[in-house]
Structures are given as C-alpha cells and as structure tokens.
Amino acid sequence: MKSKLMNKILPTVKNPIQYIGKELNSVHKEIKSDTIRYAFAFPDIYEIGMSHLGMKILYHLLNEQEDIYCERVFAPMVDMEEKMRRENIPLFAWETMDAITHFDFIGFTLQYEMSYSNIINMLDLGEVPLLAAERTKEHPFVMVGGPCAYNPEPLADFVDIVILGEAEEVILEVMEAYRKWKKSEGSRKDFLHSIASITGVYIPAFYQVEYDEEGKITSFQPISSAYPSTVQKRIIKDLDKTYYPDKVVVPYTNIVHDRIMLELFRGCTRGCRFCQAGMIYRPVREKTPETLKSIAEKLVKNTGYEDISLASLSTSDYTQLVPLVKNLMEEYKDKGVGLSLPSLRIDSFSIKLAEEIQKVRKTGLTFAPEAGTQKLRNVINKGVTEENLMEATRQAFEAGWGTIKLYFMIGLPTETNEDIEGIGDLGKKVVQQYFQVEKEKRNKALRVTVSTSSFVPKPFTPFQWEPQNTMEELKEKQQYLKNIIRDRKISYSWHEPKISFLEAIFARGDRRLGKVLLKAWEKGCKFDGWDEHFKFNSWMEAFEECHIDPSFYAHRKREYEEKLPWDFIDIGVSKSFLIREHKNALKERVTPFCRENCVNCGVENFDGGWTCYVDC
C-alpha cells in the first residue's frame, strides 16, 4: 500500500506533501507485540488539524510512553479520497502509512459539529464498522473528546468511549486499563466496563434513553447500577505540573496557525452568556510566567518558529500578561521572534501592549463587541461599552493602525431592529474616530470590516433554552444590516444561515440524530463546514426520510423543567446558576466579572472544592 501511495497516488493529487508525514519532530517508533497503537484523528484536512493545540499536546504525551505509539490521521482532501477509494487504499496514519483498522484506538477530537459527517466518512474509508455495536474484538475502539463531546449524544451510535474534559490524565488511565485487558481473555465489553468508572469517561452503550409522545426525553439512565448516573468532567488542577510538549511537529506546508502556541491558562470567568467555552472550561487555572518562559525557550530552540502566539480564551485576562510580554520581547526582539495575541477584550486593551507585541510585525486588530447596542451587550453579559470601543480604536488609529475588524452576532435573544442598526452605527463611529485623529499620526489606509455570525444556542450556557432564529429571519437581518452599511470604507461579511441551522440542530441534539447523520453521509455529505462541499438539500432529505423534524432541535424554546440530552454531565457550573443567568439576561442585568465578586457558579464546589482566587 505504501508503495502504491508514494508512486501512484501522491504524484497526482493536490499538495501531496501534506500526506507524507516525517516532518521535523514527528515521532517514529518500532512497533512491538505489546505496543498500543493510537491514531489521533482530526476530522478535517491536515492544514486545519495541524493547528490544533490539543493534538500537539496528546500526540507527544502519548508518544513519551514507552509502549504507546500515537500517529496522526486527517481527512484526506476530496481528490485524494477519490483516488484512495478507486485504488482500494484504506485511510492510513501519517507516520507509518498503516491502515487505521490495525490500530487499538482511533481518537477523534470534536471541535465543531459540522465535522460529524467527516468522522463517519473517515471510519468508512478506514474500513472500520460505522456502528459501535457492530465492532468486534478485532476492531479499534473509537474514542472522542473535545468541546463538542459535552453533548456527545448525536454520535452515541458511532463511538465506544467519550472523554469529558481535559484528557492528559484520563487518557493514560484508559491506556493502563487497556494494557491489563489486552493480557486477559476479556471481551470488548469487559474493557469498556473496566473504564466506565474512571472520572471523565462516558460509555454511550451503557446508557438508555426514553422519550415521550412529543419527542422530549423522559428518562436517561445507566443500564446497570455499576455505571454512574452522572459523569463528571476531568480537569488538570495544576497546569505548571502537567505535561506540555517542549517540541512540536513542524509542517512542510502551510497550515492555518503555523507558529508556537503558548498556552497561558485554561478557563474564562467573564461569563458571556452565549459562550460555551466560558462555562465548560472553568475554573481558571494559570501557568506561572517562569513555566511559560521555560516552555517558550525550548519550543523556539526545537522548532525554529519565529512567531509565538499567546493562546487562551481571553488572553488579556492573564494576570501576569504585561511582565510576561515584556520579558519575552526582551528575550526575543533581536532574534526575529514575534509575539501575537489572538483575542483582545476592548476594555482591557492596552495600545502600548499591542505596540510592544507588534514591533516585529504589525497586523490588523480585531475586537468583538458582539452586539450593536448596550442593551443587548447587557443581555449577553459582554461587560463592555461603546466608550470602551471608541477609546480602543482611537488609541489604535493614533498608533498607526488602519485595519480594524469588528465581530458581532445576530439572532441573539431579545434582539430587535434597533440592535441590528446599532451594529451599522458602531461601524460608522469607528470610521469617524479615524478621521478625528491627526493626519500625521494615522495610517494612510483605513479598512473597517464588520463581520456577523449567527447565534447558535449551545449546551451548558445560560442561553441553552433559547430558540435559534429561523433561516429566513437570519437572512432578513443580514440583508437589513447590509442595506444600512453604505460607507465604502466598511466591508460586511456574514455566515451562511444554513450552516448555523445544522450547527444548532447537532449542538442540542439527542442520539436519535445518529440515523440522520448516517443517512446524510450516505447521500454524500461531508466537509459540511466548507461552503463548496456543503449539501444542504441532502441534509433536509435525510431528515425527511428519517421522519425527524430539524426545527424540533433548532427552533424550539426549552422549559427549565425539560430533561436535556446533556443533563447527565457535571461540568462544575450548576444548572441553577445557568437558570439564574438566563433570567438575568432577560432582565438585561449584568453579572460582574468573577474576579470582582464571586458569582457562585458552582465550580467552587467541584471536584472536592476549588478556590478560584485568594479572596474568593
């Protein structure tokens, strides 16, 4: 197979170097009889998957274990897949080019609901039975984790194991259980039984669901008292002591984020009510500057990268950010290594900090007001004002920036036409701000981009009970805003409502959606997050043929009393807090930043007790 791939297939496909492996710092091991073979699978193409921080961490963590060999697997591009199917070449792992069906585990990371059809397609291409119930002892265990795993139910038919939360510790515990099982004569079910009680592990096959006549869940129970009725997520308590790679694989071709990613902290306590990440990743845990400097030094030395991205959910909330940035800039300013901050909050924006960071390379600035009026920013608990944005952009223009991007959402709960008009008004005011700056100071070219995405209600957020706007409503709002924005210095971009609709269905879906997913894949659906491959009509046909109403999942308002498909998962943040926050949203009440005043979200009682801050 390897010879056919190298000599016959790869010379005929686009960007063949992405399939070859053997990049700098990729791991190659001798395979012995007791080697556990783990395929870390990213359900999208190499260019996107290689930018994923979780893959970088777990790939090297697993490979540092003597008897585990972790390889990488990505979705081949459409031209490559066509040739593989024509030549009967199964999906293979990048390091050895061995078919993934020979592995012990295939672990998918779930970053985005629209990748679900790619998971089905990759299993099929890998000649692995699609349904977990049809796999035998000779087949790999299919494992999933990542943010979308916090509602794993739409994939319940296809996966054997779900990892909830941070995987660094729990995955090694699962591997240890596998070592013991492999030496035994146990069945496949015996292994799953042996790991079902590990905190952070959920086995979908060990649970059953019942529904009422309206299709609402009436019961979600384990099939035996041996399995927990509530599954708690895993967290890493001390990030300074947990594993972080001191070298990462350096691709030979361009990828989305081709740089060092320095993770400052995990969690976010800002409390934006639409944001799932802000809830599921609590509590906040920071790394010390000393640890970060040490990691940065090793990564620069071992990769040759000339860019370090300071990565976290709200990077400017890192308590030691200013001294850390100054220290890193001092260390690397003469070595041509630049820093970048991927996310900036308007209120904590420091133009001096941005200037410091962008001494090496000056790029555009991006701000996310999210909503056009203060009323709606209060509803979503964004905690920033128009004055914050005007002050930040004034300073930016005075410092010579000319390119500003503004991100908003449309379709948010309680939204009116006035809120849509507010988006256009903010764009205009940013342009006016530019012209109020002295000509000598400002950049000669001005470019303001207004971008809107569509609100998708996500599990474990205060808005999880809210309906999504219909596609027609979202299109009307987009057109309304397009008509308002007439200034040629402002460009407007928006997301396709059809994709947001599918995203909303699967974000809050239950395990009945598995048959829709399978039917849609049979109709050729894959790469659904890519406009050029998205087959909306095929999806709608799949829903119709499965007799499932997609609006039931996307457009229906839930009551607090309704049992939700993900209610069996404990993320630390309590449901009573989410209800309280939802009620506060409808009253336009702002909940303070956690560091200013503990909001009793519940995480302080999580995992034996947690203190977020010294004075908490």
From TrEMBL:
It holds the Pfam family Radical_SAM. This is TIGR03960 family B12-binding radical SAM protein. It comes from Irregularibacter muris. NCBIfam families: rSAM_fuse_unch. CDD domains: Radical_SAM. InterPro entries: CHP03960_rSAM, Elp3/MiaA/NifB-like_rSAM, Radical_SAM_N2, rSAM, rSAM_horseshoe, rSAM_sf. Residues 250-491 form the Radical SAM core domain. Signal peptide: none annotated. One of its GO terms (molecular function) is catalytic activity. It comes from the Bacteria. Gene3D superfamilies: tm_1862 like domain (3.80.30.20).
